[in-house]
Amino acid sequence: MADASLRIWVNQSLPDDARRVLANGAAAHELVFSDRAIELNIAHGEADPVVRDSDIAFGQPNIDDVIASPRLKWVHLSTAGYTRYDRPDVRAALESRGTMMTTSSTVFADACAQHVLAMMMAMNRRLPHAQAEQRAARWAFQPLRYDSRVLTGQTALIVGLGSIGRRLIELLAPFRMQITAVRRSPRPEEMLWVRPMDQIDRLLPHADHVVNLLPSGANTHNLFNADRFARMNGAARFYNVGRGDTVDQPALLHALRSGAIAGAYLDVTTPEPLPPDHPLWTAPNCFITPHTAGGQQYEFVTLVNHFVENLGRFDRGEALRDRIM
């Protein structure tokens, strides 16, 4: 069991409704809101000496503070990704104190998975092209109707199998697609369609849809490069809802311009925001959203509810959801 009262430091900026949920859910504990709050949860928090005298950190604490905070028992990140914290010195510091780290991966899984499904269906049904024809007041019956596709029977390759990938697989199930996922270390309990990452080159030529959900990291930087785009078949479409630096963007641009792949959907890029003069904006069959795949109407309330649920688990001494360290 946790202590009766804990000091919870928060540096995630929250709207009033989410603050009320947090205040109610953490009523048994002391809430301390940082005066250096971050507006975007993908931002890295500034150093704040207050966190070093707290039991729990919620948001995006500064890495040096995480390493040097002897009192911290648990760090709960307000993002699904945790690349900046995935360092030997951070892991060593947390392990030496028995401190846990969790993410908010579950919060964004459904939204991101639905976003990918929406783009799959839109591109298959030629909806972006139909909108372009509408703006030009053209009745493009034949090219739109007879170039439309159905997902049924198509093949999807999901690269990176976390909570988003698992939810996407659930959403794709009714379409009776052939689905294969690759991850760094397949687990014994996983089904036969999960393959180790070193098989990706063999699988790429057979995929109609290649969905990249990989985080940033030394092993994933530019993983999708010129060679891998060349391995994809000309009818394939590429989706990136992972991180921008996992893709060699000049190689992707060349693949789109040369017709090596049929199209791309990007929710993440390098850099962000993507500059107005960047060639990907006008690349053929390239569709971009501004890192909004995880967004939802009540995003911050959902984010806080996830933390509060985990706080209850922490108080009861139960296993925490989305634990990564």
Describe the structure in your own words.
This protein folds into 2 domains: 7-103 and 297-316, 3-Layer(aba) Sandwich (Rossmann fold); 109-288, NAD(P)-binding Rossmann-like Domain (Rossmann fold, 3-Layer(aba) Sandwich). With 325 residues, the protein is of the alpha/beta class. The mean pLDDT is 94. It has helices at 16-25, 63-68, 88-97, 105-124, 127-135, 141-145, 163-172, 200-203, 226-231, 249-258, 299-316, and strands at residues 7-12, 30-38, 56-59, 74-77, 100-102, 155-159, 178-183, 194-196, 209-212, 237-240, 263-266, 286-288. The protein is elongated and about 70 Å long. It is 33% helix and 17% strand. The strands form 2 sheets. Strands 8-7-6-9-10-11-12 form a 7-stranded parallel β-sheet, covered by helices on one side. A 5-stranded parallel β-sheet has the order 2-1-3-4-5, with no helix packed on it.
Which residues sit in consecutive blocks of at least 5 with pLDDT less than 50?
A: none
Output the CATH topology of the largest domain.
Rossmann fold
CATH class of the largest domain: Alpha Beta
Could you give me the name of the CATH homologous superfamily of the largest domain? NAD(P)-binding Rossmann-like Domain
Radius of gyration over alpha carbons? 22 Å
- Estimate the mean pLDDT confidence: 94
Sheet with the most strands, sense and barrel status: 7 strands, parallel
Structural class: alpha/beta
Number of strands: 12
The assembly state of the depicted protein chains is single chain
Sequence of secondary-structure elements: EHEEHEHEHHHEHEEHEHEHEEH
Please state how the strands of the largest beta sheet are arranged side by side: 8-7-6-9-10-11-12
CATH architecture of the largest domain: 3-Layer(aba) Sandwich
Quick one: overall form?
A: elongated
Strand content: 15-25%
